[in-house]
User: Which sequence fits this backbone?
């Protein structure tokens, strides 16, 4: 009897040693979020505990963190990041968040955006011979990203003609305003304020009317009239998240690990549109081939 | 009146019924089809108008989407007006969903039609592509409603078309119904012509015309039925003729039978009348015989008493005087004969009295219920004696075989004797040949019951088998025409039954017949 009690006591005492270091919070169940979570679980966090917020009527992340005491909270999706922003004293890593204002994030939060790194686009613009690239963005959603892009644009011989909007209704007029600024292409970034379902026709009609190429972030728009799409690599994003997680687990402070964009992307093109706008796509095959 | 005539015709004529039914069915189907067609057309036109409106609204929504979203009211109005003016809509209203303001509104015509068709089209922005969050995060893009287009379509056009459709449809239906009814009448007449012919044939038979009738018919069911009816009529005709002939024969036979029956009944009546008269005569004769017979009996008693008184005197004379002659013979012989004669006179007188009483009783219908023991052998001997006395036994050999151990019978010996005489008379009359006629009268004791039996057997031809069952019926006689009354055996059986016995007549295997009287032992 005494032996049995000792065994039970030993088991209870040993449990914290097997507690999850990573607490994964997924906003809700969608194909993209499920895939991202699966990639992260398999590649970065063998010891993890995963919650899907959408599965609960009321989700109290603070209580879970107090009970589980994870070393890092991985927030996947906008809603989970919003919830994780309330946490203090816990290292938070995020991904798959679009509607987040990077400037308002606390020091305990770092992550990887959904944008392909500006360098990828700059290399493409240079290859296509595009020098004046018009872009519509909102400072809340894409301000830091645009700052990163501006910093490197000149290095690639590209001048960004960026127009800031605060609401989707301003996009159409902002695009109209670009006509007068002598741009040779339009860059559509995944900014949820500037680019909405309502404003999409304006981008495409502007591209068609002005006969300038539209460079976008998803191949879905190629059939709508975009000439090229640079899709950020999810595997690369996972690798970057693994790197950041490793740094956090090794004791680095989140403030020391900057928020990064995805450093690899795949290029998709519409040759018909390219022909209509007079752009040659030769030599592009190998440009991003190795990245995917 | 017209309705009554129609109803009467409907009930009486299959053709009229069929034509009426088909015509009504055609009318009903035409009406249903026309109603369905008009309803369908109305739905179609309405749907078309609605589709036109929806298409127009979609077109307008598509055209003004960007400008409405961007708040470019003038541009919106210009596009809407351009499309509206070339359409069949009467009213258009474009509302901005953001602030609920009416961006553009105009109306053509005076008033909104009562049964107007309104088409509403919400203007969304999701039809041009997927938003970034939809593509990158797979999150459903919110359906953002920009505004709404409302169109009122000109439904007066529907009313005008419906009126025209009802008018043309009505006329078409009436013409179709009329033509279809006429055609059905034509075909029905052709189809039912065989039935009409059949009905004519049946009517001919009903009227009694059974002559074969062969009108021109096709080889269908009614045609074959007509042939069958013709065959039936011919057969019926033959049967009728046969029936008439048989009827005539039956009538003729019945008449003959009635005449014969009448003759027989008349003969019976005559015989009955004769018997009645005979009864009265017998009754009268009995009275006339009884008086002298009474005198004879008294005289016989006197004579007997006298002889009894005279006999000692005559015996003393004979002892003293010797034999002397009396009545032409010696006294010793005469003494016995005289005693026998006196006794015979007494007995005969008594018998005469009894016979007369029986005759009287028989004729007057009285019943002798007295049952006394008597010897059937004596009855047999007396009967034979009486018949011999009457000379009825000429050329007939009568053989008497009387049993010595015969028990006494209970009953009326005189009536039994009357029956035996009747049976002997019947036996004599049954033998028609003059030579070898033998009648045997015999008595015996039934070994089983111990009852006395008396048989009268002849060697005549016997009784025909078909007559045996009727022998004891009143007025049944094979000799009615020879004076037979047909009552002899009837009365004989009645007498024997009254005494508790039975009378049977059977044919003998060796020929002739035997009558047997069975009486109860006393």
Assistant:
């Amino acid at each position: 009897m005494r032996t049995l009690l000792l065994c039970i006591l030993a088991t209870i005492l040993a449990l914290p040693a097997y507690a999850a270091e990573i607490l994964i919070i997924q906003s809700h169940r969608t194909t993209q979020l499920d895939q991202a979570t699966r990639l992260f679980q398999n590649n970065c966090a063998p010891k993890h505990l995963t919650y899907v917020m959408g599965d609960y009527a009321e989700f109290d992340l603070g209580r879970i963190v107090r009970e589980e005491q994870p070393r890092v909270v991985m927030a996947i999706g906008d809603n989970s990041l919003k919830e994780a922003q309330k946490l203090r004293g816990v290292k938070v890593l995020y991904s798959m968040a679009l509607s987040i204002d990077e400037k308002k994030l606390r020091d305990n939060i770092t992550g990887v955006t959904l944008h392909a790194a500006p360098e990828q686009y700059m290399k493409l613009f240079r290859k296509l011979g595009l020098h004046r690239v018009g872009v519509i963005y909102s400072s809340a959603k894409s301000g830091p990203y645009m700052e990163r892009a501006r910093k490197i644009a000149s290095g690639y011989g590209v001048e960004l003609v960026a127009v800031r909007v605060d609401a989707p209704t301003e996009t159409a007029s902002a695009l109209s305003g670009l006509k007068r600024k002598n741009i040779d292409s339009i860059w559509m970034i995944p900014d949820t304020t500037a680019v909405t379902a309502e404003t999409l026709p304006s981008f495409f009609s502007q591209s068609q009317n002005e006969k300038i190429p539209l460079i976008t972030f998803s191949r879905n728009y190629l059939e709508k009239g975009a000439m090229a799409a640079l899709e950020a690599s999810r595997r690369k994003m996972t690798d970057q998240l693994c790197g950041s997680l490793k740094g956090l687990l090794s004791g680095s402070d989140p403030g020391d690990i900057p928020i990064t964009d995805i450093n690899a992307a795949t290029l998709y093109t519409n040759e018909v549109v390219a022909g209509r706008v007079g752009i040659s796509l030769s030599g592009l095959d190998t440009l991003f081939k190795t990245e995917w | 009146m017209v309705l009554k005539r129609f109803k009467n015709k409907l009930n009486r004529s299959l053709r009229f019924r069929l034509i009426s039914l088909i015509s009504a069915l055609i009318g009903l189907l035409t009406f249903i089809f026309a109603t369905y067609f008009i309803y369908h057309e109305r739905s179609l036109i309405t749907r078309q108008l609605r589709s036109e409106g929806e298409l127009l609204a979609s077109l307008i929504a598509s055209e003004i989407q960007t400008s409405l979203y961007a708040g470019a009211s003038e541009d919106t109005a210009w596009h809407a007006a351009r499309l509206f003016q070339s359409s069949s809509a009467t009213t258009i209203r474009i509302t901005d969903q953001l602030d609920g303001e009416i961006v553009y509104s105009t109306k053509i015509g005076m008033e909104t039609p009562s049964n107007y068709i309104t088409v509403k089209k919400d203007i969304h922005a999701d039809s041009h592509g997927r938003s970034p969050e939809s593509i990158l995060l797979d999150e459903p893009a919110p359906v953002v409603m920009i505004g709404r287009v409302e169109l009122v379509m000109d439904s007066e056009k529907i009313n005008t078309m419906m009126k025209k459709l009802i008018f043309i449809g009505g006329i078409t239906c009436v013409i179709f119904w009329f033509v279809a009814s006429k055609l059905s009448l034509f075909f029905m007449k052709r189809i039912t012509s065989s039935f009409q012919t059949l009905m004519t044939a049946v009517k001919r038979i009903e009227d009694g015309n059974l002559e074969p009738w062969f009108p021109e018919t096709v080889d269908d069911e009614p045609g074959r039925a007509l042939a069958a009816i013709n065959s039936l009529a011919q057969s019926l005709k033959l049967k009728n003729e046969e029936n008439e002939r048989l009827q005539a024969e039956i009538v003729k036979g019945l008449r003959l039978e009635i005449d014969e029956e009448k003759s027989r009944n008349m003969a019976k009546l005559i015989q009955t009348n004769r018997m009645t008269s005979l009864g009265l005569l017998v009754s009268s004769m009995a009275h006339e015989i009884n008086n002298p017979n009474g005198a004879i009996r008294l005289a016989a008693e006197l004579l007997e008493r006298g002889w009894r008184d005279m006999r000692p005197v005559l015996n003393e004379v004979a002892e003293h005087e010797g034999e002397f002659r009396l009545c032409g013979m010696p006294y010793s012989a005469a003494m016995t004969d005289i005693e026998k004669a006196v006794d015979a006179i007494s007995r005969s007188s008594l018998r005469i009295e009894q016979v007369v009483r029986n005759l009287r009783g028989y004729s007057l219908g009285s019943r002798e219920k007295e049952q006394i023991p008597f010897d059937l052998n004596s009855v047999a001997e007396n009967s034979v004696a009486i018949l011999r006395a009457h000379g009825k036994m000429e050329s007939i050999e009568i053989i008497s075989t009387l049993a010595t151990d015969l028990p006494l019978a209970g009953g009326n010996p005189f009536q039994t004797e009357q029956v035996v005489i009747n049976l002997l008379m019947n036996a004599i009359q049954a033998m028609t040949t003059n030579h070898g006629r033998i009648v045997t009268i015999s008595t015996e004791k039934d070994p089983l019951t111990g009852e006395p039996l008396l048989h009268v057997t002849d060697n005549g031809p016997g009784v025909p088998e078909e007559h045996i069952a009727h022998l004891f019926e009143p007025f049944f006689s094979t000799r009615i025409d020879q004076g037979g009354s047909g009552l002899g055996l009837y009365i004989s059986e009645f007498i024997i039954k009254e005494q508790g016995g039975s009378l049977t007549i059977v044919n003998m295997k060796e020929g002739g017949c035997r009558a047997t009287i069975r009486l109860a032992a006393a």
